[in-house]
Specification:
Elements: E1 2-4, H1 6-17, H2 23-30, H3 34-42, H4 50-60, H5 64-67, E2 68-70
Antiparallel strand pairs: 1-2
Length: 73
C-alpha cells in the first residue's frame, strides 16, 4: 500500500517556518483544492494523481520518494 506522508511534511514545514501552517495555507500556495488536501490528510492511503503529488513535492520542496511511503500489509 502507498501512503502520502502529508501530515508529517505539514508538521515539519510548520516547525521550519516557526508558525502553524493550515490546510488553507497549503491550498492557497500550492493550487491544490482544500477538499483534495483534506481527503489526503483524512485518508493518506487513498489514491491521488501525479499532478497532486507534483504540487505537494513542489510545496514541501521534496521528492516523491520523501512524500510517498510504501507499507507492506
Amino acid at each position: 500500500m502507498i501512503r502520502v506522508n502529508f501530515t508529517q511534511h505539514l508538521l515539519e514545514k510548520s516547525a521550519e517556518q516557526g508558525r502553524h501552517i493550515t490546510i488553507d495555507d497549503v491550498a492557497k500556495e500550492s493550487g491544490i483544492s482544500r477538499i483534495t488536501l483534506m481527503r489526503i490528510k483524512k485518508d493518506p492511503t487513498r489514491g491521488t494523481n501525479t499532478d497532486i503529488i507534483d504540487k505537494l513535492c513542489t510545496y514541501f520542496d521534496c521528492s516523491p520518494g520523501d512524500l510517498l511511503i510504501h507499507e507492506i500489509g
